[in-house]
Design a protein that fits this description.
alpha+beta, 2 domains, 13 strands, Porin, 18% helix, Outer membrane protein beta-barrel domain-containing protein
Length: 347
């Protein structure tokens, strides 16, 4: 029984060793791509470094003699081979048959199943005069590529002054404790702005923005008090003014016809409400805000353009005195979007 057990152990170790040796041999033989050639003619061997490569998509020299075809492909066990390494293998095969040119006809990128580049090509032999002509043409093309510098966007003129007017809309819920009905809305109004900015050669800079918003509504059902002055307006009006001013970070770029601008910043946000009853009375609340805007200008000349501008202004005010009914000692948020246009000047 002891001998049989020892024989079983020896047979098991032999089987494991044989399997391990088979795996090692498979990995060793499978780590290199497979190179296959189809030879038509051959000459004395040349140097692989002298073999000129024509990549896919380029015109190969059709007057050259076709010596054969070469294929470099991988399998699932192939180690990673770069494109240059695979081309080097094909160049070596071309040199063996006396070729001095390799025209790559097909190139496959690595995949999950095959981890190396795969190529097919034609092994060629060119005459000396033909090779010199191609080399001169390649040298001229390379020189022309170096001489043509990539176009860079020129830096814009540093100073930009603008004034815009257009439409604004307030998203916040604004209430007013006013007698009678209202004709109109405070949420839609006239928007206007003005500003100046400076940018450097890196297309970045700083500026300052002022933005205003005006809206109002009439009291259609207001009944005049006989004790009020006769000059009292028949249909008094409530007005809402939103003002914002603050610095901003600016990015601006321009070409011959267009100028694009981006700005973002923080500033002071001011709400003013006027109730036109006996006479004009104004109530003001102040707070902080921030803004974002994007504009595009069409340049009429180097220094003058017309542009469109869009953006949003956010404001937060603390209504200590109840200017907005129902908000006594509370913070009130305003979101105002604007779309406007106007004249822009560059210096």
């Amino acid at each position: 029984m002891a001998k049989r057990t020892e024989n079983k152990k020896e047979n098991g170790c032999y089987a494991i060793g044989k399997w391990f040796a088979w795996v090692v041999a498979l990995l060793v033989t499978g780590c290199s791509p497979k190179v296959a050639t189809e030879i038509y003619h051959s000459y004395p061997a040349t140097q692989a470094d002298d073999v000129q490569v024509f990549k896919t998509g380029t015109n190969r020299p059709y007057s050259a003699e076709l010596l054969g075809k070469v294929t470099v492909k991988g399998n699932g066990y192939t180690a990673h081979f770069s494109y240059d390494q695979v081309v080097a293998l094909a160049k070596a095969e071309t040199a063996k048959v006396g070729g001095n040119a390799l025209a790559i006809t097909e190139h496959k990128e690595p995949t999950i199943l095959v981890s190396c580049h795969q190529i097919k090509g034609e092994m060629l032999r060119m005459k000396t005069q033909q090779r010199e002509q191609i080399r001169k043409a390649d040298s001229l093309e390379l020189a022309s590529r170096k001489s043509i510098k990539p176009r860079k966007l020129p830096p814009p003129l540093p100073i930009h002054i603008y004034g815009n007017g257009g439409f604004g809309h307030v998203f916040s819920k604004v209430y007013h404790d006013i007698p009678g009905g209202l004709s109109g809305t405070f949420k839609n109004g006239v928007d206007f702005q003005g500003g100046i900015d400076w940018v450097g050669k890196k297309f970045m800079g700083v500026g300052i923005l002022y933005s205003g918003y005006r809206s109002g509504a009439y009291h259609t059902n207001f009944v005049r008090n006989p004790d009020y002055p006769k000059e009292q307006t028949a249909n008094p009006k409530s007005r809402m003014h939103l003002d914002y001013i603050g610095p901003e970070f600016v990015m601006r770029a321009a070409n011959k016809h267009w100028s694009l601008r981006y700005g973002i910043g923080v500033g002071a946000f001011i709400l003013n409400v006027e109730e036109e009853m006996d006479f004009s009375m104004g109530k003001t609340v102040k707070g902080m805000g921030l803004h974002y805007q994007l504009s595009a200008d069409y340049l009429l000349s180097k220094h003058v353009g017309i542009g469109v501008n869009a953006g949003v202004i956010y404001g937060n005010v603390y209504d200590k005195n109840g200017v907005i009914p129902g908000s006594m000692d509370q913070s009130v948020e305003f979101y105002r979007i604007f779309i406007n246009g106007g004249l822009h000047f560059y210096f």
